[in-house]
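We both want to read discrete structure tokens more fluently, so let's practise on a single case. Would you write everything just below, so we can both look at the same thing?
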Amino acid sequence: MNRPELIYETPPRYAVAAFAGVIGLLIGVDIVFALVFPELLCFMMITAISESALFYFIIPRKYQIFADRLRVVLGGWIKFDVPFSTIRQARVARSIDAFVYWGLRMATSGEGVVEILRRGGGLDLVISPIDRDTFLEQLDQALAASNRNATPPKWRVI
């Protein structure tokens, strides 16, 4: 199988305190419910494990730029591809867009936020690479070198 070349890869910038706070709050509520209602102990343990697994699978691990697409690698085997034919523009975004945004929020921090504007009916998305300037430079070069006039494909998660 002919695989496209990986051009650039970067991990996301993490707001560790925010993630720890949310996960701690959710698991803390589970523990309190289990202590107050002992008959729910098994259910609350399952809930706590499910919440941890959910965070594991939805938090981005890295952003990859290939010759024909942008890929957001999530937990485990889950990857989200954004074909270049669906990208209208990539630009610097406001910090608040990482938390309040009409579209896909795959940013993990309010710093270094990048907005990917889509065409062809796809939702716009925000991400937060560790080095925003280098990421935007590499993405702009890859977009310029690609054939973006192709028909945008339907959404797909690989």
Notes: The first strand starts at residue 6 and ends at 10.
